[in-house]
Write a structure and sequence with these properties.
mainly alpha, about 70% helix, about 190 residues
Amino acid sequence: MENPSFFHLLTFLYIGFAKLSNNEIPLAQEMSIKRKIAEWLDLSYRNVDQYEMIMRESLQWFNTIEEDKQKEHLLIIAKQIATTDTIDEIVVKKILSEVRDISVSTGVFEQSEKVLHDELAKTMGINIVTIDDHCEPLENLTKKTEEIEEAVAKKNKSIGFRYGNTELNEKVSSAKAKSKSKSKKSK
């Protein structure tokens, strides 16, 4: 695309990120991208045509790039956005935050998305790491959840903060009963 606007670059970045990290653009991510660009454009009835044109042209632009060169081109666009004179570090961090928002719009921040996000961040000159190198995928999530719940229950029981602890209640109840009986006798 010749002389793309900032909004074209941004839309290209968001579309490219969603497409390259998932091999497709899930509906939730598509809707998230549209909302983000609408916010950037301060979408109103006056600029709906501009919004639709930017979305359409950016998608067409991304789709015209050969598949094996899309990532390279995405990183070039990320660098171009970050080095634009009117864009400062705060705006770059906002863009990366929106990239994460787009990722989690499906309900999960996938490892492939984290890897691409971190690569974009590095290219844009921001030191943000989201990759979970030390974490292995959970094979049996329900089993892990049950183990965690058991450990929490054990810990709470051993501390004595468990509501309804019968031993504690019996001691408190008998102490209260004794003090009540003493106060009735003294009256």
